Amino acid sequence: MSATTSRTSQTSRSPRSPRDSWAWWSSRGPRSSRAPRPWWRRGWVLAVVAVLVAASAVRVLTGTDALTGSGVVNAALRLAVPIGLAGLSGLWSERAGVANLGIEGMMIIGTVCGAWAGYTHGVWAGVLAGALGGIAAGLLHAVATVTFGVDQAVCGIAINILALGVARFLSVIAFSGLPGAGATQSPPVRGVIDTVSVPFLAGGAGTPDLLGDLERTRWFLVSDAAGILRGLLHEVSWFTVLAVALVLGSVVVLWYTAFGLRLRSAGEHPAAADSLGVPVHRMRYCGVLVSGALAGLAGSYLVTVSSNVYREGQTGGRGFIGLAAMIFGNWRPGGTAGGALLFGYADALQLRQATAVHVLLLLAAVLAWTAALVVLRRRPRTAAALALAGVAAFAVFQTTDAIPTQLIYATPYLVTLLVLVTVAQRLRMPTYAGLPYRRGET
């Protein structure tokens, strides 16, 4: 009788309440209950090794040293910083539950504010002013979407449009009449941000350049790994070091602190978080303001490191590519940084050695065939599609000597589209990202 009663009570239990669902969600760690794999057997490590081996083989076969050269990698790192900061900006906002399509506009405000402060007070003042300009734009987005419940996508697009007019208005006021400046361009920023090289590995402080020596030997795999590492460690801007620290800090804050758990709960299950006393609106405000600061920093990078002047249209759509990097990284800082490096690499390759873009077709074919072999057992249809794509890329490589100039300039954007199509099935965005929340809703 008691067993029957117990069974009946279990079957008639009411659905899980918001408090129970929040307890279940918050109890989930970033790792599964199974024993973690050794680091050398994890998927991303094997993928990096496979790409490095394939790139080294293609470099040896074609003689295209720029494919893994330190110069291209260093340029890719410089080009990836504003994209990565823009992606990190979107990540903070969407993890808090607010879709931010206005990153491009916040970057525009960051460029003009950074250029004005950099001209009047020095380069690091320009960096700070860019962040403050982004915060101001982020505050506008937060008030409209969080407080008044304006559609988040519409508000983001409106900020992009508004930023164009505001930037022109500010540049006319701040730069007209100054030497070498006007309504669409600022005078040069005062001062430069220094670079740093790691001693002994990349020749910093007058020490030997061990990685450079290895790169020049052109040994299979060894020289390629040395070239990539040297590109990441030689003459790196202090602003780039700051950007890397922001990525690592985002990992720590969002995944290993109580504040980060509360902020992410506002984007995953705001009703359950609210029932436990989490100030959902305040958390969303924090996420959007940090998002604005990061977007403003991305803008100030363009006028302090990439260039030393502000020019109208300088952002060049990097805010939108940053959103693509965020999606590629599955709304995680490390993946976002990896996506930014990929897009920066495609851009750097076409800038430094346009003929090397043609070799990317052969590299794409090799990687597609490798991926087809990996997934052949579990996903035969996907393997067949990858094999066909590899055949197509190889056929184009064999039948052409060069890629049209227009296609070369479009390479970063084509890589963006291909990557998003490839990883679309494994993405998981925050549940309530883009949805307004009113207290009392479930």
Structure commentary:
With 442 residues, the chain is mainly α. Helices cover 69% and strands 1% of the residues. The protein contains 19 helices and two strands. Strands 1-2 form a two-stranded antiparallel sheet. The chain starts with a helix and ends in a 19-residue tail after the last helix.
Could you give a short description of this structure?
With 442 residues, the chain is mainly alpha-helical. The protein contains 19 helices and two strands. It has helices spanning 2-11, 18-27, 43-62, 70-95, 103-121, 123-147, 152-175, 210-217, 222-233, 238-256, 258-268, 270-275, 280-306, 318-328, 333-352, 356-374, 380-399, 405-409, 411-423, and strands at residues 195-196, 236-237.
N to C succession of SSEs: HHHHHHHEHHEHHHHHHHHHH
* Total helical segments: 19
Strand content: under 5%
Biggest sheet statistics: 2 strands, antiparallel
Cα-based radius of gyration, to the nearest Å: 24 Å
Which runs of at least 5 residues are low in confidence (pLDDT < 50)?
1-33
Strand order of the largest sheet: 1-2
The computed structural class is: mainly alpha
The coarse silhouette is: globular
Average pLDDT taken over every residue: 86
Total strands: the figure is 2
Percent of residues in helices comes to: 55-70%
- For the record, give the distance between the C-alpha atoms at the N and C termini, rounded to a whole number: 38 Å
